[in-house]
Design brief:
alpha/beta, 2,3-Dihydroxybiphenyl 1,2-Dioxygenase, domain 1, four-stranded mixed β-sheet, 2 helices
Length: 127
Amino acid sequence: MSEEKKVKIKLQAIVLDCSDAHELAEFYAKLLGWQKYDENPEWISVGVFPQTPFLLFQQEPEYKRPVWPDRPDEQQKSIHLDFAVSDLEAAVAHAVECGAVVSPVQYSDHWTVLFDPAGHPFCLVRE
């Protein structure tokens, strides 16, 4: 009987497509207080080295902003990020100051849906 080899898998990065990788990386660096790493022109990331996961931004020439809430025959979101916050109102104000836009459609008092500069929805969630 052969011994099974265990494979270690660790989430390294979450990649978001966008039309302007530098702009989106700058937004998330400000929002989260993380470092922006842009030594590779094809992959701009933000994070706290050596901790992972990083947020990684890939510039796509044909990028189309997602529509939220979803609508038939429109570009659908493929991912959204949730961030736990200690003070929802202060966190929303900070996000807007960084360049986010509050969604006109909200479904709860426990979280707020916003859009980053590339149109990706993300939520700030009360801890």
